[in-house]
Amino acid sequence: MHDISIISMIFTAALALVSLFLILSPLFKWGHLPYLHVGTKGQDLATTKEALLTTLNEIEFEYKMDKISHADYKHLKKQYEIEVASIMKEEEQIVEPSVDHDLMAEVEKEIEAQMQTYKKKKGEEK
């Protein structure tokens, strides 16, 4: 009976430590622990961009309702637009390497060949 209580105490302590770790881990940046990262960078960027665009809409709404001054509106709008632009550049950098340039060149050649064939047929019909 004594052995069971020691095992249950060890199990309970381990469960408590794991639970505490999982609860507190989002509060820290774990750059060297990639398995703790839930989303991908692209998803994070999309979420951030969506939040910034929503904020831009809210700023515009507040300005139209005369709740913020024109100077504040222009300043905030410019600040958020710069942030959205930088996120869009990051998204382009993520998407761009995934394009196979050789494949794209081959597709363009095939399209050009089809266009030439179409032009020849069109010229013969006249």
What do you see in this structure?
- By secondary structure, the protein is mainly α.
- It has a domain at 38-108.
- The chain is 78% helix and 0% strand.
- It has helices at 2-24, 41-64, 70-95, 101-125.
- Helix 2 (41-64) packs antiparallel against helix 3.
- The longest helix has 26 residues, at 70-95.
- The radius of gyration is 28 Å and the shape is flat.
- 1% of the residues are buried.
- The model is unreliable at 32-39 (pLDDT under 50).
- The chain crosses the membrane at residues 6-28.
Mean pLDDT score: 82
By DSSP (H or I, 4+ residues per run), the number of helices equals 4
Main sheet overview: none
Question: Total strand count, please?
Answer: 0
* Shape descriptor: flat
Q: Provide the structure class.
A: mainly alpha
Q: Report the C-alpha radius of gyration, rounded.
A: 28 Å
Beta percentage is under 5%
Low-confidence stretches: 32-39
Helix share, percent: over 70%
Topology pattern, helix = H, strand = E: HHHH
How far apart are the termini? 100 Å
Transmembrane segments: 6-28
Keywords: Membrane, Transmembrane, Transmembrane helix
